[in-house]
Design brief:
By secondary structure, this protein is an alpha+beta fold. Helix content is about 40%, strand content about 25%. The strands form 2 sheets. Strands 1, 2, 3, 4, 5, 6 and 7 form a 7-stranded mixed β-sheet that branches. A 4-stranded antiparallel β-sheet has the order 9-10-8-11. Strand 6 and strand 7 form a beta hairpin. Helix 5 packs across helix 6. The radius of gyration is 20 Å and the shape is globular. Bound molecules: (3R)-3-hydroxy-3-methyl-5-(phosphonooxy)pentanoic acid. The site of (3R)-3-hydroxy-3-methyl-5-(phosphonooxy)pentanoic acid (PMV) has 16 residues, from helix 4 and helix 5.
Length: about 325
């Protein structure tokens, strides 16, 4: 049996993070520059059912049977086997690698799950639909995030720009004119579940205040989709800035993020904001091809641990 490989992209949330948890729209796009990869190989020397998992990036070299039931990789494998009604899988090794920075708002966990679920199902001879893959990855995401909206697994499984509203049918959309982003990584690890949980407590205490912020962020996401579909991406700049101001009011930005956002604007970015869970992780800046280099340099000299230049198309 030949080895089966599947990959999944990273993702960037353009507009609407956090508000999306509260049923407002958000926009996310796949990020092809970074990928998670799963390779599944038959192991005729092992006994049936034995599943060897190798994930060198996280120092994992173990067997499925030795992992706790709620470990995310174990969960993804068990849920895939259950969805395919496979109780006695052939022996195999699953090797997982990823170039997506972890805990940085780029969807690393969801991308590993999607690549793994897709490769495993093809290996077992019964490929799952994108919707089924996304649903299984969502179940796994709950262990990473607590109360995820589902936007990460959706954009990564569909590998297309999505306009996402929790609980509604998936809407993918087209990017009429490509645009350029520089992503700046603060280097600060910030688990999304903690930021989401903290915001939830503050929302409980002051619901009207946060509901208004969520609604405003959702309106920006809808306006963002509009200008992307109309082919006027330069108009995204002010929308990014407005969304950042709202995220600051939600108190999910940070000194490091604010410094990078300001540096990007000073270096000529058309707009900038944090992307993802916040309090660390990444920010994005909208640039023209000829300002990308200068913005990336400004981010580095203002403390970015890494930058990526990307074209969204
Ligand atoms: O931290 P990330 O990139 O996985 O994004 C989280 C986005 C949130 O809206 C903050 C949470 C969610 O589940 O949608």
């Amino acid at each position: 049996m030949p080895a089966i490989t599947a990959t999944a992209p990273g993702k960037i949330i353009l507009f609407g993070e956090h508000a999306v948890v509260y049923n407002r729209p958000a926009i996310a796009v796949p990020l092809q520059q970074v990928t998670a990869r799963a390779v599944v190989m038959a192991e005729p020397r092992f006994s049936n059912g034995e599943i060897h998992i190798l994930a060198p990036d996280v120092g994992l070299d173990t067997y499925l049977a030795d992992l706790p039931g709620d470990q995310p990789l174990a969960l993804a494998i068990r849920k895939t086997l259950a969805a395919l009604s496979v109780s006695q899988p052939p022996a195999m090794t699953i090797r997982l690698t990823s170039t997506i920075p972890q805990a940085a708002g780029l969807g690393s966990g969801a991308a590993i799950s999607v690549a793994l679920i897709r490769a495993l199902s093809v290996f077992l001879g019964q490929s799952l639909s994108t919707e089924q893959i996304s649903d299984i990855a969502f179940e796994v995401e709950k262990y990473y995030h607590g109360t995820p909206s589902g936007i990460d697994n959706t954009v990564i499984a569909y590998n297309q720009p999505v306009y996402f509203i929790r609980g509604m049918p998936i809407e993918t959309f087209r990017i009429a004119v490509p645009f350029y982003l520089v992503i700046g990584d603060t280097g600060v690890k910030s688990p999304t579940s903690l930021v989401v949980g903290d915001l939830r407590q503050r929302w409980w205490a002051k619901p009207e205040y946060y509901e208004d912020l969520f609604t405003a962020a959702g309106q920006i996401a809808a306006a963002g989709r509009d200008v992307i579909e109309r082919g006027e991406p330069q108009m995204l700049g002010p929308l990014l800035d407005e969304n950042q101001a709202i995220l600051q009011k939600m108190d999910v930005s940070s000194t490091e993020l604010d410094r990078l956002v300001a540096a990007a604007r000073t270096a000529g970015a058309l707009g900038a904001k944090l992307s993802g869970g916040g309090r660390g992780g990444n920010m994005i800046a909208l640039v023209e091809p000829d300002t990308a280099e200068g913005v990336a340099l400004a981010l580095k000299s203002n403390g970015a641990a890494a930058t990526f230049n990307c074209v969204v198309r």
